[in-house]
Design brief:
alpha+beta, globular
Length: 137
């Protein structure tokens, strides 16, 4: 339960910091981070400069309500994520109708056991969820 409380605390702090920044500033910051990656990839110079990051984690809020198309319920959303040169892992989480849908993409050279990572994430999620439901209040 301490781990869950720590995650909640750090997440709230990060959201508070992000809330101080305009959408334009956040987009500009992302562009500044990604520009060198794109430039190095396009020019074929990715081997000359170490990557600025080896992992990306994204949380994309989705619809809280169930969605339908021609009467068929949308059961899950799985985003298409990528890894760029030198990056080992991209984890994107999309929420939808009280569910979390995880997309894990890895470079097989950097992280060959992506399936095992998925199992560990699922087990950890179940553990945190159980701890949260067992706690009073």
């Amino acid at each position: 339960l301490r781990r869950l409380q720590r995650v909640i605390k750090v997440t709230r702090q990060a959201k508070a910091e992000l809330g101080k920044v305009s959408v334009t500033a956040a987009e500009d910051f992302y562009a500044l981070i990604m520009a060198p990656v794109i430039l190095l990839t396009v020019t074929g110079n990715t081997e000359r400069v170490p990557p600025s990051t080896n992992a990306i984690f994204s949380n994309v809020p989705g619809s809280r309500e169930k969605l339908y198309l021609e009467g068929a319920e949308l059961e899950a959303l799985y985003p298409l994520s990528i890894v760029t040169d030198g990056m080992g892992l991209n984890i994107t989480v999309v929420s939808h109708a009280n569910k979390l849908c995880f997309a894990l993409v890895s470079c097989p050279t950097h992280l060959p056991g992506i399936g095992e990572l998925g199992k560990l994430i699922r087990a950890s999620y179940r553990e945190l969820r159980s701890a949260a439901s067992d706690s009073p209040g």
